[in-house]
Amino acid sequence: MGAAMRRIQAGNALTAFGIGFTVPFLYIYVAQVRDLGSMAATSAFVAFALGALVALPLTGRVIDRRGPVPVVIGAAVVASAGALALGLSTGVVPILLSALALGAGQAVMQPALATMIVWCSTPSTRTRAFALQFFMQNLGLGIGGLIGGQIVDESRPGSFTLLFSIEAVMFLVLAGVILTVRMPHVPSIRDAVPRDPSQAGGGAWKRLLGHKAMVKLLVLGFVIFFACYGQFESGLAAFGTEAAGISPSTLGFALAANTGAIVLAQFVVLRLVEKRRRSRVIALVGLIWTVAWVIAGFSGLGHGSAVMAAAAFITTYALFGIGEAMLSPTLAPLVADLAPEGSVGQYNSAFALVKQMALALGPLGVPLGAGIPMLYIGVFVAVSLGIAWLALRLGKQLSPVQDNPSLASRIVAQGNTAAPAAQAAEPAHA
Q1: What is the pTM of this model?
Q2: Which CATH number fits domain 1-182: 2.40.10.240, 1.10.940.10, 1.20.1250.20, 3.90.1720.10?
Q3: Which terminus of the chain faces fewer neighbouring Cβ atoms within 10 Å, N or C?
Q4: Domain 199-408 falls under CATH 1.10.3720.10
């Protein structure tokens, strides 16, 4: 790993650490500490998602024209200002505006950092680089949430201001770290930088939407994010508390099990997936999540003890974590490998936009999870099977190397060994 990649990963981890301080406590902060009620807290989450949805369609064009470094720095400054303002705000309007800025800043960072990782890696190292990024993000979020939980005190609004201030500082640390990164003059992905700036303009979206493999990946990504991340803190949590009788503390253990499974399994899983076809890895994730949803359904049947229900629910979250660990070295590198000349930033931004849309629509599962729990489970069992089916369909649109990048290194290795053999076979000249 080069110096540039180390700094990118370090900045990414520190940012996740800062975000972990506030994410679990945003609802409590707005609804209870500022005494603005649940509607205002829900509106803050909507503003957070809206900021991302407004900013991301424009982000790819800027990344491809100006490069990812200024985009990361600008987004970090905006997010820092939003986090600090959120910690100081007491009224509904200032909180919504702060959440809008924070959501936009955080969302824009994702494709810009992903593009930096692409530029600083090669096809043979990219899978491991994205796996490390995901590992560091989850580790940072977990540690940040753990420490933040020890600091926060609902009776002291100042403790929440401290949390948001720490998050703001971490965003500025990211900006400082990225300022020191020396990006390669020639990115490691072929034609990652557009030779003609017009390639990154409005025509880029038209070209992207005409790219069948990428469109199928976007559809698949939406279903994945809606069925997993979009349900963690909304529909699945509602199902657990209403149908399975899971206590809030058990829900906390389930979330910890999810993070723990990712941290413990990431590099073990990496060895298993990095030389296999990406489409089949994603299909396997769909099957694993199908089992996870079935186990979640068992926790809500009420046939076993409370301990069995809790164990089943925690197992569900752990299985989701294993699936996430398999996807982290698979999806992001595939987006980069599908991107044509000069459109890496555009493709990363489109994928990030799809993720934000799925997360924004995730709470639609709450009424079903709380009111008709078994139908909720049945729907997401079918959705998970749909992930496997969509992944196999996507595989038919990919080239052999796009689906399995290890084939490229094998071809290179065979070429290197063939050359000396050919030279040895030639007759000596006098």
Answers
A1: 0.81
A2: 1.20.1250.20
A3: C
A4: no
